């Protein structure tokens, strides 16, 4: 017997499941997958910047563990630090 198909998102059941929604709209995925993806991408950028300014970094970007604050000359690089503005 064929099971009925539901086109709602399998994670949150709030909207139609399609690529655009899964990549940018699902509220359940926001809590974990989007954050992990952001940290992976931002970690690569941090690794490249550190490498560019001549800091010692790992050979592989996925092994890089960013320091929270790095000062190089007159530039400060911050990782996962809240920035408060008025």
Key structural traits:
alpha+beta; two-stranded antiparallel ribbon; 37% helix; 86 residues; 2 strands
Any overview of this molecule?
Helices cover 37% and strands 9% of the residues. It has a domain at 19-78. The protein is elongated and about 65 Å long. The chain is α+β, with helices and mostly antiparallel strands and 86 residues long. The protein has 2 helices and 2 strands. The chain has helices at 19-24, 27-52; strands spanning 69-72, 75-78.
Provide a concise account of the structure shown:
This protein has a domain of 60 residues.
Q: Which segments are poorly predicted (pLDDT under 50) over 5 or more consecutive residues?
A: none
Please state how the strands of the largest beta sheet are arranged side by side: 1-2
The separation of the N and C termini measures: 61 Å
What is the general shape?
elongated
User: Percent helix among the residues?
Assistant: 25-40%
Topology:
Elements: H1 19-24, H2 27-52, E1 69-72, E2 75-78
Antiparallel strand pairs: 1-2
């Amino acid at each position: 017997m064929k099971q009925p198909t539901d086109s709602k998102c399998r994670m949150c059941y709030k909207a139609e499941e399609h690529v655009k929604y899964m990549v940018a709209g699902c509220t359940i995925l926001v809590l974990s997958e989007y954050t992990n993806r952001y940290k992976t991408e931002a970690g690569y950028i941090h690794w490249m910047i550190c490498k560019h300014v001549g800091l010692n970094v790992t050979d592989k970007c996925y092994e890089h563990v960013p320091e929270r604050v790095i000062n190089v000359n007159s530039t400060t690089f911050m990782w996962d630090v809240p920035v408060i503005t008025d």
